[in-house]
Amino acid sequence: MNTVWNGAGRRIEICDVGMRDGLQMEAQFVPTEDKIALVDALSAAGLAKIEVTSFTSPTAIPALRDAEVVMREIARRPGVTYTALVPNARGAERAIESRTDELNLVMSVSETHNLANLRMTRAQSFAALAHVVAMAQAARVSVNVSLSCVFGCPMEGDVALDGVWDWVQRFAGLGVAGITLCDTTGMAYPSQVAQVVAQARARWPGLAFTLHFHNTRGMGLANVLAAIDAGADRFDASLGGLGGCPYAPGATGNVCTEEIVHALALMDYDTGVQLSALIAAAARLPALIGHEVPSQIARAGRRLDLHPVPAGFDAIRERALAR
Fold first, then answer.
1. CA-based torsion, 57, 60, 62, 63: positive or negative
2. pLDDT of 265-276, one tens digit each?
3. pTM reported for the whole predicted model
């Protein structure tokens, strides 16, 4: 296709997952009012979708123990989808009661990773999630399913695509609205991404596919561009580049929202996101989590954020011109 370098105004939708995928990894609890303010800032910046929180047991993820309060008290903007991770039926009940727009369900296409991460076989996960899908459909709440380890498992290695497609078909058969293909531990590479995206779109043209990449090995942006060139138009990304995975030692987090938006804007893709507002939101994070964030845009600024000339520049110029 070779169109990736010129977006020509093509729309790319970004879902920021930093408030869930990012904050759940942080040791320092971010106050509830600050979480709400960050979600509101992301809404104002123009994100298409925001993963607000996770309705997991507060004991399992204490960083997100305020899920109900956050979801109920955010300022909802028309056109923005407010989603949340839901692990089970009880989480679904909590999410629905809190007026969540979309339930994001998770299981792994790797048996080993699913057992290690969720303490269930894949068959057991599917049975439990099928029940949650039915609950959501009865409540008229949309469902997205995130499939982990599509691009490789840190314990098994490569994952056969035929097996991935089998799980996609099972959930498509339940009538879910979308599927997220997740590079859970940053094992994806561009040519692999192009193959996966092309096959997924060809097999299920009516299903909304989202790509979820981590920058563990420095290929996050390259993978996003490869996916776009293969036809993808929906991506997860994390404010500040927060995130990670307990099964990927050294992981640097998810692809960074402001880095992706910055790069795509330079190539004339339309994300609908106001970059300056996004950068301002990311600038709040270090004080809230107690450390710097991976975002290169937060550190270096945008490409044309210029800097003052060095001290004594006028004298340097005069001496140079006098030679």
1. negative
2. 999 999 999 999
3. 0.95
Q: How far is it, in rounded angstroms, from Cα 198 to Cα 156?
A: 24
User: Is the residue at 317 inside a domain?
Assistant: yes
111-115 contacts, C-beta under 8 A, 24 or more apart = 111/156, 112/153, 112/155, 112/156, 113/148, 113/149, 113/153, 113/154, 113/155, 113/156, 113/184, 113/247, 114/148
Q: pLDDT-based confidence at 315, cuts 50/70/90? A: very high
In sequence order, what E strands does the chain have? 13-16, 49-54, 81-85, 102-108, 142-148, 178-182, 208-212, 234-237
Among 5, 47, 44, smallest CA distance to 264 is for: 5
- Tokens 């399913």 locate to 145
Which residues carry out catalysis?
245
Q: What is the domain count for the chain?
A: 1
Q: What is the pLDDT of residues 180-224, one digit of tens each?
A: 999 998 999 999 999 999 999 999 999 999 999 999 999 999 999
C-alpha pair distances (Å), 4 with each of 227, 230, 309: 9, 9, 35
In this structure, what CATH number is given to the domain that contains residue 145? 3.20.20.70
**Which residue range is the domain that position 316 belongs to?**
13-322
119: tokens are 């303490």
Q: What is the pLDDT of residue 90?
A: 97
57 within a domain of the structure (yes/no): yes
Residue 2 lies in a domain: no
DSSP 68-89: HHHHHHS---TT-EEEEE--SH
- In this predicted model, what pLDDT tens digit does every residue of 71-85 receive, in sequence order? 999 999 999 999 999
110, amino acid identity: S
Q: How far apart are CA 272 and CA 268, in angstroms?
A: 11
Question: Do the domain assignments include residue 4?
Answer: no
Relative to beta strand 178-182, strand 13-16 is unpaired
